[in-house]
Amino acid sequence: MRALLAAVCLVASPALAQDTLRETPDYFAAAVFDVSTAQALARSCATISVDPVATVQRSEALLTQLVEDGFSTEAPHLEMDNPDAAIRELQAAFVERYGLVEPSEERVCEVARLEITEGSGIGTILLDLNE
Questions:
Q1: ∠89-116-45 over CA atoms, to 5°?
Q2: Is 29 within 8 Å of 90 (Cβ atoms)?
Q3: Rounded mean pLDDT of 9-19?
Q4: Cα dihedral sign, 110-112-116-119
Q5: Which residues contact 61 (CB under 8 A, 6 or more apart)?
Q6: To bridge 121 with a disulfide, which of 29, 34, 37, 45 should be the other Cys (CB 3.0-4.6 Å)?
Q7: What is the dihedral of CA 46, 47, 53, 58, to 10 degrees?
């Protein structure tokens, strides 16, 4: 969870010199997007929750992959360029896919359940409290 929480703080963190930063791995941007989107869906739907165990497992897998790719264990996000653009692209595609410009709670719940059913990165960390 440490890596994902640190990633959320990335926007507020001062960047290192450009020449020392590595390209943000796609899997890192995807993980930040998945967790933040799952949290947003859960906040907007009373019958959906974020699974803390699945979130921790996802975070541990992310940290393992980052270490395998040569990033530090303490603050890997500080070694990367800013992933904001990649995350915004994922968000825009998600909103467009589901038509979520101004969704009702019912629509948000429906989308969350679809993500769970599909077993997407978002869906794997969501819980349907009606099941």
A1: 80
A2: yes
A3: 44
A4: positive
A5: none
A6: 34
A7: -80
The one-letter amino acid code at 26 reads D
Radius of gyration of the chain measured on its C-alpha atoms: 15
Residue 76 CA to residue 90 CA, distance in Å, equals: 21
Under 8 Å CB-to-CB from 105, ≥6 apart: which residues?
44, 45, 46
Look-up: residue for tokens 């906040």?
43
| Cβ count near 31 (within 10 Å) | 24
Give per-residue pLDDT as tens, 58-87. Answer: 999 999 999 999 998 788 878 999 999 999
**Global model pTM greater than 0.85:** no
Q: Collapse the DSSP code of 28 into the 3-class scheme (helix H, G, I; strand E, B; otherwise coil) and give the result.
A: helix
